[in-house]
């Protein structure tokens, strides 16, 4: 057979058809050597759907709304709406409870894994300032927004706890919370449960072991101010006025007058505490020390080592009375060294 004749035969040949597959009239498909894809006559929303779910736009809108509000997968949102008869508020609560159960289960499995990474969080409101430390396993997770939101919740919980203490301040007050005490704090006015429940949720979502390490708070009356500094500071619009980093410091100072430059002075004092890691404040009468000096006012000033910190502070008419310094993971490293 000539090539020309063979081409003519190909052009007039009719396409072969596969047998009917029960898809209804007109469903014969041209034969193909590739995979045959069958489209189900049932719409996507009818699979395993409860009675509440129909093809109406309102049902789809409800599903989308729950997904946007909670961030959980569509399949979980769908299960929640089915279990709660389409009630959005109940479905949201159902999702959180299920996620919390899964989080507690995952937390139990991951318990014991080292949490040397994480973040320090600094929050200031009025005359109250708090520092918190929350740990995780990897730096990658510490950069995740969900982890940072957990740090925010811990800082807010600590702030609310501090503000609930009805003390009459004649001088400054300072307090610390350990891991167990932090875990039992309420999560906040708009969140159910305790901080330990929010921790379980975060572990369930991110799949790493985490811990609420510690918190410190300072309240000051008139005549005092708190200088603060966070090294490697990160700000996120969604986290409001929370500042995040790997090191943080609070410096309590007494002053005879409130001036505009005190905020900058407080930041510089905080930088010094982070960089030089003093163990005590000391006195202006102490002899100047060298690099190994542990008294804050006798240390070489971080930004100008030719003078001591005390010599830097004195002309400003400010007295340094106390400080707090947090370094992320410092306790874990010490325990590992031992």
UniProtKB/TrEMBL annotation:
Sorted UniProt keywords: Elongation factor, Mitochondrion, Protein biosynthesis
Chain ranges of the Translation elongation factor EFTs/EF1B dimerisation domain: 130-281
Annotated compartments: Mitochondrion
CDD domains found in the cross-reference section: UBA_EF-Ts
GO-annotated molecular function: translation elongation factor activity
SUPFAM superfamilies xref list: Elongation factor Ts (EF-Ts), dimerisation domain, UBA-like
Alphabetized InterPro entries for the sequence: EF-Ts_dimer_sf, Transl_elong_EFTs/EF1B, Transl_elong_EFTs/EF1B_dimer, Transl_elong_Ts_CS, UBA-like_sf
Protein biosynthesis recorded as keyword: yes
Domain of life: Eukaryota
Entry function: Associates with the EF-Tu.GDP complex and induces the exchange of GDP to GTP. It remains bound to the aminoacyl-tRNA.EF-Tu.GTP complex up to the GTP hydrolysis stage on the ribosome.
Homology family: Belongs to the EF-Ts family.
Protein name: Elongation factor Ts, mitochondrial
Taxonomic lineage: Eukaryota, Metazoa, Chordata, Craniata, Vertebrata
